[in-house]
Amino acid sequence: MSNPPDYPYDALEFGETLEVAPGVHWVRMPLPFQLNHINLWLLEDGDGWTVIDTGFNTDEIRDYWRAIFGRLAGGKPIKRTIITHFHPDHLGLAGWFEAEYGAKMWMSYAEFLQAHLAWTQSVTHDVDGWMEFFVENGLDPAVSKRYKAERPDFGRGTTKIPVSVHRICDDDIIEIGGRDWRAITSGGHSAEHVSLYCESLNLLISGDQVLPRITTNVSVWYTEPDGDPLRHFIDSFDRFRPLPEDVLVLPSHDRPFRGLHDRLTGLVEHHDERLDAAAVHCETPRTAMDVLPILFRRELDDHQIAFAMGEALAHLNYLVTERRLHKYRNDAGHTVFQRIG
Questions:
Q1: How many separate domains does the chain show?
Q2: Structural domain includes residue 184
Q3: 245, 238 in Cβ contact below 8 A?
Q4: Domain membership flag for residue 277
């Protein structure tokens, strides 16, 4: 059994900052979701500043940034933004930073491409494609219809995405303020998520890949129906286990914490429990929709069901790869999963 994380700092108010290590400032910004906040990072960088993740595209967050720069930046330029992954709460204001401050965007290339696909709502981000896929996996068509009527718009959460990028690759060393930060890329939550580790400060900016309390969403996409993102996610933990036991983890949600190794163990235990529960439930053929009550104890609204469907499929596909479940199309045209043996 893993131990709970150690939180050395209390939560900040929105728009507040706190220097958690020399030259590393924690910024907390609001989000217009049930998950109502995101942690962003402002790093002193020689004759300027580097911003790691930018926040969602709202006037409120832009005003917070201007106030922060007014009291903290000392007139030094914002040199670049480093984006952990393409989701709009992380990427949202990268275009504004480039237009307003001349800050160039750094990002892994897979995330850069996904951002542009999402912006144009093509290929991987066609809402109709998503809903058709979920209906095939048991989603009530009425829920699908309501979800499509709302048409979640990636573009509302982001300013226009820069058309050029400084590419970040795995194990790249990025110098920020005279200190080396090593890029650790990983999958599961997104295709090529970037975390950053600074050995000299014993800091890990983990993005969404390692969170201290909630679990990261890991979903199967309709463009890769047989994908195994949960395996990619869990396998990525091997990239973080060599880091020191007492590393200070700077996550995108909740608070900075210590206890990385225990948290990784806890996440594996959590997903193992869910996998076992799903396998038992599939003694008879089940759709992904049938498995939702087993994996999610709370009542889900239409928006949450879409995330939950993707996550249920991630667990079911993992079990298929493990040869614990068989996956096939039933006479009703639904994809179902059944326990083997």
A1: 1
A2: yes
A3: no
A4: no
